[in-house]
Structures are given as structure tokens and as C-alpha cells.
Amino acid sequence: MKIKKSTIVALVIIITGGLLLLYPTISNWWNTMHQTRAIGSYIEQVEDHSEKEKMQYLKDAEEHNETLLGRSFDRLLLSEDELTTYNNLLKIPETETMAIVEIPKINKKIPIYHGTDEAILQIAVGHIPGTSLPVGGKGTHSVITGHTGLPSARLFTDIEKLGVGDVFMITTFGKKMTYEVDQLVTILPNELDEIRIDPEKDYVTLQTCTPYGINTHRLLVRGTRIDNLVTDSQIIPDAIKINPLIVNTIVILGLIGLLLILKFIISIFRK
């Protein structure tokens, strides 16, 4: 029994369209799982270090931050030696994660990596070299950057929903720091004054491109350090459980399968 060419074409179109529709959901779920595993691995590796070792990692980072005070924005242009030094700070050989950012309002928990290479920004968020390392302290201003609107991972999508008074947390080598949003500004990429280091302040800025799909400007969400909230709990890796996205994917795949079967049966009865 032969199947008409038109039926085959229709099936191919249905399958292709279904795969295209499913790609963002499946890809985002995959990257979320990657982030969860990266966070879990980081926490385990940190816990394997003694308190003395953790304190030394933090101390080395704090000393590095002190060298940035009083420098102009040429600190953002690292030499090869400076870049090597930077990449070895807060660096655990078994993981690429340097810290974790948690944004409760938009339900985000993302690993922070060294640098801003595109390979990093496709799966996580990056720390901008030449800004303070995320260990807190007076006279520090860390800048964490991430993409918005990627079809494969949501990352900093929705940080524009944050407002003054909202909080986010940074956890570095078990040290948890809470920041309260005090400013949201939109700037051009070459405008750097908003990421200056104030010797009296402890800032972290979350940065992403805007407007969505055009990306001519940068949205900066700045937080100033506050005491940790009483309700704050230690970050633990999310349990591997059935994600609603998986359920949705299975349902959609099932519907596509039923459509294909129905189409095939109809084509047979028309013979």
C-alpha cells in the first residue's frame, strides 16, 4: 500500500513544526538542569574545603579587590598576567563556578562564572573582570552580566521586573550576602560611570542587554548590601524531580504522535 507524497510532506511539516515549537522549552529545561548540577557540584566542592581554606580563598579575593580601589576604568582592560591572576581567584579546580546568584522574585538561581565569553553566557552568567570579585565588603562593586531572551536559556530574562526594595543574594564559598535593589538604570554600552567603585559602599550590579531583541543598551539593576534576611536559608541544590516543563513536553509529544497516527489512518482509508 503506497502513501501519497502529499501525506509524507504533511507529516514532515508537522514533525518539523512540532520540533521548532518544542526547542525553547526543551533547551531551557536542559540548561536549567545544567545550572542545577553546576550549583550542586560547586556546593559539594566548597564543603570539601576546610574553614581555613575557605577563608583563604575569600581573603585572596578581598586583597585583589583592594587593588582596584582608586583605579580608573582601565582596570577593565586586563593584561595577560592580570587575567591569569583573576582566573585563579575563587577558582576550585573541580568546577567552573565562582559563586551563585539567587533572585527570589523571579525564581532564579544561577551559577556565576569567571569572565564574559559567549560560551559562558549561553549557559550561565558571568562576572565582568576588572570589577570587584563577589565577596562583599566596603569599597566593592561587582558586576554580573547575563543574557535576556535566549531561546535556549532564560538566565537574566525578567530581571526588569525587579524594583527598588527587592532583594537578591550572592553566595561565594559558603558566604551568603544579601543585596537590596536601590537603582535601575538604562545606559549605553560605553557609559561606565554607573559601575564605578564607591569606597564607602558595597554594591553588586546585575547587567543585561535591552531592549529585548535589539540590545543597543544595558539595563543595570544595582543592589546595596544589607543584613541577611531572617528567612534566608542555606542554598542547596534543587532535587532532581519531575519538572512541569517535562510534563508539558511529554503531553505535546503525545499530541503530535496522535496526530501522526490519525493522519496515517485517514490516508489508509482514503486508498
TrEMBL record:
Keyword Transmembrane: yes
GO molecular function, one term: hydrolase activity
Residue intervals passing through the bilayer: 7-26, 245-266
Pfam assignment, any one: Sortase
Matches recorded under InterPro entries: Sortase, Sortase_C, Sortase_dom-sf
Positions of the catalytic residues: 147 (proton donor/acceptor), 209 (acyl-thioester intermediate)
Name of the protein this chain belongs to: Sortase A
Organism domain of life: Bacteria
SUPFAM superfamilies for this protein: Sortase (SSF63817)
Keywords tagged on the record: Hydrolase, Membrane, Transmembrane, Transmembrane helix
